[in-house]
TrEMBL record:
Cited PROSITE patterns: CYTC (PS51007)
Residue stretches making up the Cytochrome c domain: 64-151, 175-268
One Pfam match: Cytochrom_C
UniProt keyword annotations, A-Z: Heme, Iron, Metal-binding, Signal
Record-given protein name: C-type cytochrome
Length: 329
């Protein structure tokens, strides 16, 4: 490297530093939750309020039981807030706070750059087992505006403490479904029902949703949902269930959460068509996604129920091979 190149390199670094993501850290734990009541009754305020309503009472506006058939976008009677707890503000329950600052974002599932709208439709087609909302619909605008409202004040690219789900090391063994069933009966069935069917507010067909949402069966999330992957469900359950649990006071042990999550994902649920088209760049397919192809000859059973640490090793090899091939091009 000659002197000029060296100086150029130095300058390039200096210019790049201020936009590095890790520059700004935001914690969702000491951040006051934004108050909808304080918003004026203008266009923005009204759309935020509708977005909030769509989040907590999804079933009443775009669910499969609403009167206007054209509005039946969701395929089940869950609410977004069935998973995204506390109106999608609870840390480590996939909060939407800061999502506006984190998108557009590369997503392996599509092997493409994904916008906030794409991400909303990701959950519409999987978690809600339904159809994509048109980008120009009032409902899509309301979701994006509500997410924007929750994210106000968080700089683009900030590192957010409390985002997504909290990492937890999974036991290095195949999950034990019989042990999971025992945990389910003791810790979950009182609310979610003996058959995971949940407890409705009213009666079938009334579009009023659930007091306790279903965990499996025809009215739950489909098999393409993030919650249907064992490691994702395990982290969510460990830090958020039974209701009232947070990452500060887990109720279940690591083993109990792992096994009960496996019991839940072993149960029948709606099937997402063309699942095998997810993660077109196979090197970054999550190790707990149990559709083909499988890393270096692992079985579907191992992708679904573990043990995961050996799969992680294999996935790292796959990534290294992919990157080596890219370098040759
Ligand atoms: C069955 C549980 C479930 C339901 C119901 C659900 N989601 Fe999600 N959502 C998830 C999970 C799990 C993730 C994160 C993991 C992943 O898929 O990568 C997520 C992620 C998201 C994200 C990105 C968050 C981030 O930190 O990047 C958005 C935005 C989102 N969901 C919107 C919605 C909307 C809008 C609805 C309702 C129409 C909804 N979700 C319903 C489980 C759910
Ligand atoms: C006291 C009642 C209660 C108990 C006990 C409980 N849950 Fe939940 N669960 C809820 C409620 C209510 C929600 C909806 C989110 C909210 O309002 O907090 C929920 C949401 C969920 C969700 C996401 C939504 C869905 O339909 O998939 C999962 C997964 C879940 N619970 C799993 C479990 C598991 C596993 C256990 C047992 C370890 C459990 N829950 C115990 C009340 C409960």
């Amino acid at each position: 490297m000659n002197a000029r190149q060296w100086v150029f390199g130095l300058l390039a670094t200096a210019v790049a530093v201020p936009v590095l993501a890790s520059e700004t850290k935001v914690s969702l734990f000491d951040r006051p939750v934004q108050k909808i009541e304080d918003l004026p009754d203008d266009h923005y305020g009204r759309l935020v309020r509708y977005g909030h309503e769509l989040t907590t009472r999804t079933f009443a506006h775009i669910g499969p039981e609403v009167k206007d058939k054209k509005m039946r976008f969701a395929g089940n009677n869950l609410a977004c807030a069935s998973c995204h707890q506390d109106n999608a503000t609870k840390p480590f329950a996939m909060p939407w706070t800061g999502v506006t600052a984190a998108f557009p974002q590369y997503r392996g599932r599509e092997d493409d750059l994904s916008t906030v709208e794409d991400r909303v439709n990701g959950c519409m087609q999987r978690s809600m087992s339904g159809k994509a909302l048109p980008f120009e619909s009032r409902e899509m605008k309301a979701y994006v505006t509500y997410i924007h409202f929750l994210s106000r004040g968080i700089p683009v690219g900030a590192e957010i403490e409390g985002a997504a789900t909290k990492r937890a090391r999974a036991p290095n063994r195949r999950a034990d479904l019989a042990a999971g069933e025992a945990v389910y009966v003791a810790q979950c069935a009182a609310c979610h029902g003996a058959n995971g069917e949940g407890v409705r507010v009213g009666v079938k067909g009334d579009a009023q949703g659930y007091v306790f949402p279903p965990l499996w069966g025809a009215d739950s999330f489909n098999d393409g949902a993030g919650m249907n992957r064992l490691l994702m469900a395990y982290r969510y359950i460990l830090h958020n269930m039974p209701q009232g649990t947070s990452h500060l006071n887990p109720t279940l042990s690591v083993d109990e959460a792992y096994d009960v999550a496996a019991y839940m994902v072993s149960k029948p649920r709606p099937h997402k068509k063309h699942l095998d088209r997810d993660f077109p760049a196979r090197w970054n397919k999550p190790i707990d996604a149990s559709f083909p192809p499988y890393v270096h000859g692992a079985t579907p059973d191992q992708h679904k129920y573990g043990p995961f640490p050996p799969l992680l090793e294999k996935a790292k090899q796959l990534e290294a091979e992919y990157k080596a091939k890219q370098a040759v091009k």
